[in-house]
Amino acid sequence: MSVSTDAAAVKAEQRRTWDAVSDGWTREWETFERGGAALTARLLALGGVRPGHRVLDVATGPGEPALSAADVVGPAGTVTGVDLSPAMLAVARRRAEGRRNVNFLVADLETVELPPHAFDVVLSRLGLMFAVDPGAAFGRIARLLVPGGVLAAAVWAPPPRVPLMSLGYGVLARRLDLPSGPPDAPGPYRLCDPAALAAGLTDAGLRDVTVEEYPVPFRFHDPAEYARFTRAVAPPPVRRRVDALDPAGRDALWAEVAAAAEGRAGPDGRVDLTSTALTVRAVAPHRPSSITTEGPR
User: Fold this and answer.
1) Is 0.90 surpassed by the pTM of this model?
2) What local confidence, expressed as pLDDT, does residue 297 receive?
3) Residue 134 in contact with residue 191, Cβ under 8 Å?
4) Cα dist. 224→163, 173, 217, 258, 259 in Å?
5) 128-148 pLDDT, tens digit each
6) By the 8 A CB rule, do 186 and 130 touch?
7) Whether the predicted pLDDT of 159 surpasses 90
8) What b/e sequence results for 171-207 when a residue is b if at least 16 CB atoms lie within 10 Å of its CB, and e otherwise?
9) CB 141: neighbour CB atoms within 10 A?
């Protein structure tokens, strides 16, 4: 298959996956936002989002940080959120009811039809690592920003530093014998190397690149709540293997996930799974970039 066909197939699979887990993320959204809201606030600060700004949110999912940005830019500003998943964006649109300054498009960054130099700020909260071609995505962001515009984004650090995701998935991988994909495939930890991330952004024509660690305070009321969260957001391949177990096997599996979280519980029983994100700030050049990298079609 050609590169473009491969990219189209990967994106189609991503769309199916995110559509399939949209209900679980909707149920667990408030749980996730206990930490996610802090990360959103950090990105808004890094981007310098203010009233009147035009903001693009890449891989917005159920609508963050787009909706928070819309509250900041006010009626004189606009926010556009893009995501591959129609189901996720249906949730985002419900949350956006009553706001006239935000709209959502079902699209990926490489193919969405947006004019160049249309945005003062581009945001992305834990989405850029799913780009099929990160270099092309970074280049497109550089062209979509106004000269001097800012990219403010967050990606995950390496798995051991992201127990929110890796603790439960580690149990599932051991118990279900889950295969590990190629290290360069789109996924949660693809951009976890700070030096490589900074180099990729610089190569795309962005300037004044900074990459910093940010501890995201994810906390759960008890181990059982963490097991429920992990179950709700598990992707389809994991769900299929879980469903293949008998009822006793499924109960034992989720009990093991809860037991893993119990090792992180404090005296009050609450589970602290503070996880490290890498926050990125980069600035579009004041002169038009000569880089012409295009994303896969």
Assistant:
1) yes
2) 28
3) yes
4) 15, 19, 18, 5, 9
5) 999 999 999 999 999 999 999
6) yes
7) yes
8) bbeebbeeeeeeeeebebbbbbbbeebbebbeebbbe
9) 25
